[in-house]
Amino acid sequence: MRRLLYLIGALAVAGLLAGAPASAATKNVVIGFTASQTGKLNVEAIRQINGLNLWIEQVNEAGGVKLPDGTVLKFQAKFYDDESKKERVQELYTKLINQDKADFLISPYSSGLADAAAVIAQQYNKILISAGAASDSTYKKGYTLIFQVYTPASRYLTGALDLLAKMDPAAKKLAVIHEKDKFSTDVVEALKKYAEGKGYQVALYEGYEPGTTDFAPFINKIPAGTDAILGGGHFADTSTFAKQLHEKGVKAKMVALLVAPPEPKFAELGEAAVGVIGPSQWEPLATTYNQETAQKLNLPFVGPSVAQFTQAYQTKYKEVPSYHSAGGYVAGLLLGEAIRQAGSTDTAKVKEALDKMDLLTFYGRIKFDTAKEHGLQIGHEMIYTQWQKDAQGKLVNQLVWPEAFKTADVQPYRVK
Amino acid sequence: MFGQLLSSLADGLLLGFVYGLAAMGLSLIWGVMTVINLAHGPVIALGMFTAYLLFTQAGVNPYLALLPVAVLGMALGLVIYGAAVHRVLNAPHLSTLLATFAVNMIIIGVGTAVFTTSPHNIDFSLGSFSLGPLTVPFTRVVAAFAALAATALLYLFLYFTRPGKAIRAVANNRMAAELMGISSTTMLALSFGLGTLLACLAGGLIATFFPFTILSGGPYELKSFVICVLGGLGNPLGALLGGLLLGGLEGLVPAFMPVSWVPVVEFGLFVLVLLLRPQGLLGAK
User: Fold this and answer.
1) Can you tell me the mean pLDDT for B206-217?
2) Which domains does chain B have, with CATH numbers?
């Protein structure tokens, strides 16, 4: 009996040894990043890493990425909490590169933090896919290895003005109240230029400190007869701003604010959310990004469909994904696709693949600027959402612009 | 322009009452035991979260919730006093500063772990009323009245009840009060509790109109320092006046210059008062 057991054991070991060389070599690719798990950016940042982790899980489950030489790449996340602080970011990215031997980097959430990480990535010759960072200025510094997933800040709110022109061609007067951080300032500077070019009058243009909770001093300064109020910053301040606009009974044809309105959590504001428009990088309702559209545009379609992504995310995290989640997922997806196309994990080869990339995903089109502002996102478009009440009086976030994505007609904010 | 100024001033003044209430807590603790309570901000934030939890979990009206908020504030103060303040009371000022700062870090740490730092919001509205160019949310008016009522109650307590008189006696001369048979430990603990109670109340009121995180108490703590200096450290009534002054300033300044200049003016005033009238506008007590 004992002899039989030995025999079985020996056979099993032999089988294992024989099996190993038959399956190709597996290599772990370390993706390094920091995430603001704590601090003021944690809502958006956690969604972003949730998205990225979902991609890593899916790609590994599907057998990883196979290179032409037969090597199978499996992905592994290595990350630290940056506490939403810039100083921590640079320290931690250096650590990720030197100690954790990260092969590729994903940016932290928010333009300020991503900009801090970009310097380090470029210095150490590592590719950094910047997710959750829209500021344009990072791409004016001559970096060659930083690639942006989001539509840049300069195109965040300009579409809202196109929408306003369609709502009411007579609208003229704008009030811009924005957070004084890198991203929001980039947005409103481009907005102001665009607005003045279109003949709008920017009657109020003021910035508020990050972390502001009392917006009454700003709201009191909005001149009478203002047609549209634009601006905001990140989730926390923008939702407070929206709440106080409502309480103060401010009248305007349009209120379009950054970042917060597309977040499902914004609905907690109740009545104060009604009518607020927000620019979004991606929405679960924007199902137009599919195989068919890809065919029409003559582009390859890569990755899951909108429905597949939304469902997988919901199953794993028990919440509706926001564009921050989609951004995180797509950052991984693009990296994986670039490695596949390059057939290598070599920085120069993957960079070349990213430079050439022009494709459609569930998140929209992706194409990077390779000329003056290297790495800037030029393929992706913003979508504008508006919180409206449905027949039962329930809050629904509808897509109102551009026309191709529209799920409902835009409604004025409050005119009486 | 006039309409703008009026509504700006009204907003500032109404908020000023609540600033005053928060500062009163800080002022009282300083006045009685010369301790600067650096845990003041997080205690305000705990007041906000207590009101929030009672509202969201038990459906308690945020104004009714002020009662349990006050009870909790008192209990919290007694615990902080017993755990961190009592033993270092007679040590140099730096010790009490560090002790209360430690409490500050503990509350923020635990609060961040429990509530995260994403904003919470009491979805409660009483609507707004309009009067000419003025549109004021009722929550701010109620908060101003509540702050006023709390001040009146504190005043009555300090001047017309035995424990109130005992607190004042301890503040005046701890040794003499002990010789008269007053337990100074009890009175010190009670006044620390009263101080945190006021901070929690202010937090509960602020939570009815501003969203908040566990870190939201910080700015009110800073304002409380300015207010205490304006009104005279240790003088609760001065704190209310200082609060109104600061609120009025916050309403007035933005009408003439960018809003970001408000802190410059506020802290400029802070330095000026320290230089020219260090005892405060009403004088310290």
Assistant:
1) 89
2) 2-112+137-276 (1.10.3470)
